[in-house]
Amino acid sequence: MGQTMYSRSLTTNAVHIWHAELDQTEHSADLIQLLSADERYQASRFRNSIHRTRFITRRAFLRHVLSQYCEVPAREITFSYSAYGKPLLRYPTSNLRFSLSHSEHLAACAVTWDREIGLDIEKVRTIPDISDIARMFFSAHEREGLARLPANMRNLAFLNFWTRKEAYLKAVGKGLSVPLTRLDVASLPQASDAVRGTRIEPSQGPLWLMRDIKIADEFISTLVVEGENWTLEVASNYGISVKVDFASAHTSARCHNMGK
Ligand SMILES: CC(C)(COP(=O)(O)OP(=O)(O)OC[C@H]1O[C@@H](n2cnc3c(N)ncnc32)[C@H](O)[C@@H]1OP(=O)(O)O)[C@@H](O)C(=O)NCCC(=O)NCCS
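# coenzyme A complex -> structure
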């Protein structure tokens, strides 16, 4: 890690995914050196040391990943933020696009050229109050789908919905200004129509392709990328290795506009 620079080849239509174990407390004194003053300030605001270390590690991880493609030392990278909080590269100027996600002790980062991208990972865990959360964030179609499932499948289905919606949200980059109750995704891992459609984007808006990917045991994750002709090309580890298994990527679906 540190300041070693590589020129990692990322072809035009490829998406690379990296992942990192965040609970590496023994490295955090080194990792914080890579962060900007602003990031250090954000880190200092975490009262819980686990959350602080995870924040420091995931920002250092993001910088390290980006430096692989930009040929700029990790600590020299600067970010700007869209009006909705989506981070973009400010320095160096680049068409590289990225999306960072973390859940508990795991972070993952997806990078590609020239297309918007969104990644979300979630640790599989028991979610209390599924119905209440679904009422706030899920479409009527999604809520019906959830209610039809046997009770023992509902928790995982809920997480699938959630991860897919978050990944879409991050790709589109408009944060929670997007009315999530108007976005329909499928709940089941095997579903071939993961995104049933969205009434959010204007009709000439981009086509989004959604794919569930397996990054680590006990985690689910979804990648949403603008356009159709992209491929997951390599998987890379960072820090303590967690196995990546793209052979188990099983869902790929078009996200299209459904009118109003
Ligand atoms: C912030 C948000 C983008 C995702 O947050 P999250 O899932 O809790 O956390 P993740 O680790 O997966 O993603 C956070 C990263 O996304 C990126 N991000 C932040 N705002 C973003 C935006 N508007 N668009 C794209 N990416 C964004 C940042 O890199 C951020 O990293 P940071 O915390 O180090 O700054 C946003 O979707 C959110 O606040 N969600 C709240 C939960 C919710 O209501 N979800 C409804 C789903 S049904």
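# post-check
Residues 49-70 form the longest helix (22 residues).
The chain is about 30% helix and 30% strand.
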